């Protein structure tokens, strides 16, 4: 890979899906720019994992963007609401953060 290789902005959450996506981009010859979002999720372990993934994959740059999605409210991932342990019932799950992935994709597009 050279400085002339194309860039790929990859959303890196620290999970398996984003790890594989970033690895596939590298394998295809892209230089990786990693983007993680600190949306005030309750489990900061995800961001620690994202940092490890970005480093392991040799991301040219890793931005951890602070964006407080708690203002939307109503999610067990951002509010003081118990996370259900017995599966998902009917309707919108309590762990849903309104438009989270759409917002993340918009941020990645903006950087790209």
Largest sheet: 3 strands, parallel
Number of strands: 3
Low-confidence stretches: none
Structural class estimated from helices and strands: alpha/beta
The arrangement of helices and strands along the chain is: EHEHEH
Helix content: 25-40%
As a percent range, the share of strand residues is: 15-25%
Shape type: elongated
What is the average of the pLDDT values?
88
Sequence of strands across the biggest β-sheet = 1-2-3
Instruction: State the separation between the terminal residues, measured CA to CA.
Output: 19 Å
The DSSP helix count reads 3
Explain this structure to me?
By secondary structure, the protein is an alpha/beta fold. The protein has helices spanning 16-27, 45-56, 100-111; strands at residues 7-11, 31-38, 61-66. A 3-stranded parallel beta sheet has the order 1-2-3, sandwiched between helices.
Secondary structure elements and pairings:
Blueprint (H helix, E strand, L loop, with lengths): L6 E5 L4 H12 L3 E8 L6 H12 L4 E6 L33 H12 L1
Parallel strand pairs: 1-2, 2-3
């Amino acid at each position: 890979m050279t400085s002339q290789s194309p860039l790929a902005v990859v959303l890196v959450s620290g999970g398996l899906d984003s790890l594989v996506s970033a690895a596939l981009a590298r394998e295809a010859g892209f230089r990786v720019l990693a983007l993680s979002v600190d949306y005030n999720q309750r489990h900061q372990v995800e961001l620690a994992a994202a940092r490890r993934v970005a480093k392991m994959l040799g991301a040219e740059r890793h931005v951890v963007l602070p964006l407080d999605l708690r203002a939307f409210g109503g999610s067990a991932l951002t509010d003081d609401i118990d996370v259900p342990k017995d599966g998902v019932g009917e309707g919108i799950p309590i762990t849903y953060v309104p438009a989270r992935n759409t917002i993340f994709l918009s941020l990645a597009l903006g950087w790209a």
